[in-house]
Amino acid sequence: MDKIAKEYLRVIIERFTDMKKTAEKTIEQLNDEQLNWYPNEESNSITVIMKHMSGNMISRWTNFFTTDGEKANRQRDEEFINDINRKELMNKWEMGWACLFNVINQLNAEDLLRTIFIRNEPHTVIEAIERQMYHYSYHIGQIVYIAKQIKDSEWRTLTIPRKK
């Protein structure tokens, strides 16, 4: 495999893995009520964000090379309903990430410039990966920020603590 492609694939696997771990270390600090908290009707709870991410992952990464990334059977609006318990949420979460890693772990150098479609728009595989990297990191940031607001002084930092 081309050295650059191999390195790119190694790095994106590492970054997606880090994102997943960051979210999971965050939700470990929260009880069920906190997972479902949202400040107003225009905002989402951590539960809703995680449901949405899972729905997006399943849609985008299932049959990655053969079907559009926005599946006709996806019920996107239902992802934004706070109607799931922690166990169901974590099962959905794992299903989404499994779809992503199943594809990413099988990619090779030749795949990276292949064309796939998302919402009928052509993307190289690299573009599609970077699109999802941006989307997921955006939501992981929201998850952490919401949790920090909820936990306040009880928040256990996930990175280097201030003044250390």
TrEMBL record:
Superkingdom of origin: Bacteria
UniProt xrefs under InterPro entries: DinB/YfiT-like (IPR034660), DUF1572 (IPR011466)
Matches recorded under Pfam families: DUF1572
Descriptive protein name: DUF1572 family protein
Organism whose genome encodes this protein: Scopulibacillus cellulosilyticus
